[in-house]
Amino acid sequence: MSSKKEVQQLNHRLDKCKFKLDAAKSRGDSAMISKFTDEIEKLTKKVAQLKHKQDYDLNKERKELSDMPFYREITKAEQADMGKLKKSVKGLVVVHPMTKLGKALRIDVMTGFAPKKF
């Protein structure tokens, strides 16, 4: 399972636990209150851990791309035939500005990163 889906599932479980905690507080059930507070604490810690890992992986990938010796804007003609471009340039990585990686790199246009000039 991808980490994105895992974070989503954990957030759903966290919401359910918070709802059940509110219900237990309204009933005054101390055993259930302690159970759900522990569960919420555990889930919150797990979500934070997964989000940190996602940020770490994103920064690692951003660093690898920014260290590549050559990058330039992909023209509209090249964008139209992306398959041909990727076949002609070995190791080409294309980054769109609206993706997480594109936002981390702070690019404004579709950009290609490669180990050699293209």
Task: Describe this structure as you would to a colleague.
A three-stranded antiparallel β-sheet has the order 1-3-2, with no helix packed on it. Helix content is 68%, strand content 9%. It has helices spanning 3-27, 30-66, 76-80, 82-88, 100-105; strands at 70-73, 93-95, 111-114. The two termini are 36 Å apart. The longest helix is centred in the middle third of the chain and has 37 residues, at 30-66. Helix 1 (3-27) packs antiparallel against helix 2 (30-66). The chain has two domains: 1-61; 68-118, Ribosomal Protein S8, Chain: A, domain 1. It is mainly alpha-helical.
Number of domains: 2
**What fraction of residues sit in β-strands?**
5-15%
Q: How much helix is in the residues? A: 55-70%
**Strand order within the widest sheet?**
1-3-2
Low-pLDDT runs of 5+ residues are none
Mean of the pLDDT scores?
94
| Class from helix and strand fractions | mainly alpha
- Based on Cα principal axes, name the global outline: elongated
Oligomeric state as shown: single chain
List keywords for this structure.
118 residues; mainly alpha; Ribosomal Protein S8, Chain: A, domain 1; 2 domains; three-stranded antiparallel sheet; 5 helices; 3 strands
